[in-house]
Amino acid sequence: MLYAIIAEDVADSLEARSKTRPAHLARLETLKAEGRLILAGPHPAVDSPDPGTVGFSGSLIVAEFPCLEDAQTWAEADPYREAGVYAKVTVKPFKKVLP
């Protein structure tokens, strides 16, 4: 089943995000290689694809996991979570309708 992992950043997370980004992306690349990643990306803190020093307000990942518990366990082990980038992480079942 698909799950949406919706994360909200702490204030001023850009420096910690930048330092931790390679490890975060490596985990996403593993999901992609396994054919389980649907989409992933950050939420710019301003209405711009490149928010510059303003940074990001959170992230969204939609991926396939065997069950909700597995998705939650995976999300809790995210390097951004461990580095204190995320203030809150919500994991919910997701049903893709389009496209």
What does this structure look like?
The protein is of the alpha+beta class and 99 residues long. It is built from three helices and four strands. It has helices at residues 14-33, 68-76, 79-82, and strands at 2-9, 37-44, 56-64, 86-94. The protein has a four-stranded antiparallel β-sheet. The chain is globular and about 35 Å long. The two termini are 17 Å apart. 19% of the residues are buried. The mean pLDDT is 97.
Q: What is the topological layout?
A:
Layout: E1 2-9, H1 14-33, E2 37-44, E3 56-64, H2 68-76, H3 79-82, E4 86-94
Antiparallel strand pairs: 1-3, 1-4, 2-3
Keywords:
single chain, 99 residues, alpha+beta, four-stranded antiparallel β-sheet, globular
Question: In a nutshell, what does this entry contain?
Answer:
The protein is 33% helix and 34% strand.
Task: Tell me roughly what share of residues is in helical segments.
Answer: 25-40%
Note the run of SSEs as H and E: EHEEHHE
Terminal-residue CA separation:
17 Å
- Biggest β-sheet: count, sense, barrel? 4 strands, antiparallel
Global structural class: alpha+beta
Number of helices: 3
Mean pLDDT: 97
Tertiary shape? globular
- Spatial extent as radius of gyration: 13 Å
Q: How much beta, percentage-wise?
A: 25-35%
Strand order of the largest sheet: 2-3-1-4
Poorly predicted ranges: none
Number of strand segments: 4
